[in-house]
Amino acid sequence: MRKPLIAGNWKMFKTTEEAKAFAASFKKIYESSDIQVAICAPFTQLGALKEAFKGTDIKVGAQNMHFAEEGAFTGEISAAMLQEIGVDYCIIGHSERRQLFAETDETVNKKLHKAFLAGITPILCVGESLEERDADRAFDVVKSQLVKGLEEITAAQAEVLVIAYEPIWAIGTGRTASPEQANEMCGFIRDVIDGLYGEIVADKTIIQYGGSVKPSNATEIMNMEEIDGALVGGASLVPEEFIQIVNF
Ligand SMILES: O=C[C@H](O)COP(=O)(O)O
């Protein structure tokens, strides 16, 4: 059976002191269960969080990485640098990276390959804009992101991959996809994985929903059959809110 993953994406929020304070409070209210929990934090907070979560089963993730081994890429971070800290996950291809930092399906694909080589589990983000949904292109857009993003990714890698369906129109807007809409797309994503790698792999791939997940809607979303977790932005910043989602 798939173990659901609820991951916080802190985006560009929290200093190291604030991250440590979050970890201290969260550990007090967190109880380990059959839900995997992770916090994807800014690069400078990853080491502190690994240290703070030592002895727990809470995982730590980055929000981006470069696809090159090393080189003259000012401001970038390599997979080996994340691996050295012991980072478990890395979000790849978040829509904010695609929209604001010119991330393409090609760079997403290169990053996925590098993450796997470093033993880091990628959380591959896909999702359509409002214009694309209104034009009835949501399924084509998501399929294309998957097919291009997963080029030459093996079945063994696809089995451990996490995919996050994040409709751009539901991110940070307070507007959530309905549980049915989210479930429909997550089911479609599983069908695409089935088409690429077969049913055994598709049954194992974790498919999350992300976009304005909060304590008040987490239960309904998490209870949908095709949804194996959530990628939570704003509501992951406050321990007392995030724990309610984790304990949906
Ligand atoms: O990665 C997380 C998503 O962008 C969702 O963010 P949000 O929960 O603040 O809407």
TrEMBL record:
EC nos: 5.3.1.1
Active site: 94, 166
GO BP: gluconeogenesis; glyceraldehyde-3-phosphate biosynthetic process; glycerol catabolic process; glycolytic process
Compartmental location: Cytoplasm
Record-level GO cellular component terms: cytosol
CDD domains assigned: TIM (cd00311)
Pfam families linked to this entry: TIM
Entries under InterPro entries matching the protein: Aldolase_TIM, TIM_sf, TrioseP_Isoase_bac/euk, Triosephosphate_isomerase, Triosephosphate_isomerase_AS
Enzyme class: isomerase
Residues that coordinate or bind substrate: 9-11, 172, 212, 233-234
Protein family per UniProt: Belongs to the triosephosphate isomerase family.
Quaternary data: Homodimer.
Described function: Involved in the gluconeogenesis. Catalyzes stereospecifically the conversion of dihydroxyacetone phosphate (DHAP) to D-glyceraldehyde-3-phosphate (G3P).
Protein name per the record: Triosephosphate isomerase
Organism for this UniProt entry: Aminipila luticellarii
Lineage of the species this protein comes from: Bacteria, Bacillati, Bacillota, Clostridia, Peptostreptococcales
